[in-house]
Design a protein that fits this description.
The chain has 143 residues and is mainly alpha-helical. The protein has helices spanning 5-11, 47-50, 54-73, 78-98, 102-105, 108-111, 117-123, 129-136; strands at 18-24, 32-38. It is 52% helix and 10% strand. Strand 1 and strand 2 form a beta hairpin. The two termini are 29 Å apart.
Length: 143
């Protein structure tokens, strides 16, 4: 499944599990670097998953119901759609809990971590990073 991430990121918009792109280096503005960031959430922000107030709980319930409705419309049984919607919410909640808060994301010391592909492979060994970047390097439009 993780081998499909490069293809998903190449073919479709969105941050499946994480986001990837290019941007200007914050230290050396003459460089364009690869940027990886947290992603994979259907709701706008990590706080939607972590807050426990009544409004936040209600939003998560409505979101799960929406996912269930989409899955049912795509042909899943009601029972399977409910199970898959609940699983989706559990996965997204786990991703959200691992993310930086809005305030933490504004701190450049918490978001700037230059790594080699080898170092990244040690940090996240479940993804074949050389293959991922090779797939991402393909042109988007056929020549």
């Amino acid at each position: 499944m993780l081998s499909a991430l490069a293809e998903l990121h190449h073919e479709y918009p969105g941050g499946f599990f994480f986001g990837a792109g290019t941007g200007q280096d914050a230290i050396d503005s003459s460089l364009i670097i690869v940027e990886l960031q947290a992603g994979g959430l259907g709701l706008p922000d990590r706080d939607y998953y972590t807050k426990t107030d009544e409004k936040s709980v209600k939003i998560r319930e409505q979101y799960a119901a929406y996912i269930q409705q989409l899955l049912t419309l795509s042909g899943e049984s009601a029972e399977q759609a409910k199970a898959d919607a609940d699983a989706t919410l559990r996965i997204e909640t786990a991703l959200a809990k691992a993310m930086l808060t809005r305030v933490e994301r504004r701190d450049p010391h918490k978001t700037y971590h230059i790594l080699t592909v080898e170092e990244l492979s040690k940090l996240a060994p479940s993804i074949d990073w050389p293959l991922y970047f090779k797939c991402r390097a393909r042109p988007v439009w056929p020549s």
